[in-house]
Amino acid sequence: MIRTVLAGLRSAGESEPPWASWTTSAATSVVVATGLFSLLSTASGLADMLGNGDDTVLLLTLGGPAGLAAMLLLSRIRPAERIRDADVLGGATSCLLLLVGMVAVLHLLIGTTGSVVDAVTDATAALTTTALGAVTPDSADHGGRFLRAGSQWIGGLGALMVAVAVLPFFGAEREFADRSRLHGRRPMAPNQRTAVRNILYVHGAVSLG
Questions:
Q1: Which of 59, 182, 188, 196 qualifies as a FRET site for 167, CA 20 to 30 Å off?
Q2: Domain segments of the chain: what residues?
Q3: CA atoms in the 13 A half-sphere facing the CB of 199
């Protein structure tokens, strides 16, 4: 699934040469991080309208252009002939680091905290599912609370994606992927596309429940 997405990205022109594997992976990580930032910022801005609404304009102003920038960059990415395993892992790591920085800046801008250290700590804790954040948003700060909760939700989903749909498929034989059909069982991850779909189903159902 990961390679299909990366290698199947639309090129800017059919006659243009393909990008290197690491270049495509790096650009894709920027697109994903920016897109998730847009989603978090926009959703937090809408949630802030349920409270005092003092950060709504800022959050929506940041979220909208970020989403447009992500779509524009996505349209400019050229596929690589082959995506290396190491570049997939490097891209995922880069995406996490970029998103941590973006969420930390967002916490500072909306006043959830005035400390850079606390903002980075909370963003890191949320996106790495450690739940050891240093920031406690005010009860009336709906935007800040949603930003923190949304970051934790995305962090949990991302961790599942990496653990089930990325790392098990590393190596020549993909020997760690859950593909066994012994005794009539249905595997969780017969391939990466199905793994991603199953994770979305499970994570979404648990979140709604």
A1: 182
A2: 2-208
A3: 23
Among 132, 114, 123, 130, which residue's Cα sits nearest to residue 150? 123
Q: 115 is written with which tokens?
A: 């400390």
Which residues make Cβ contacts (< 8 Å) with residue 97, sequence separation at least 6?
none
DSSP 163: I
Instruction: Tell me the C-alpha distance between 132 and 170, whole Å.
Output: 30
In this structure, what token pair is assigned to residue 29?
């990580």
- Taking the whole predicted model, whether its pTM rises above 0.85 is answered as no
Each residue's pLDDT, cut to its tens digit, for the chain (209 residues) gives 555 555 555 444 456 788 999 999 999 999 999 999 999 999 999 999 998 889 999 999 999 999 999 999 999 999 888 888 889 889 999 999 999 999 999 999 999 988 999 999 999 999 998 767 778 888 888 999 999 999 999 999 998 888 887 777 665 455 555 555 656 666 666 777 888 888 888 888 888 86
Residue type, 182: L
Q: ∠ at Cα 73 (15, 168), nearest 5°?
A: 90
Sign (positive or negative) of CA dihedral 128, 131, 137, 143 = positive
Question: What distance in Å separates the CA atoms of residue 162 and residue 79, rounded to the nearest whole number?
Answer: 21
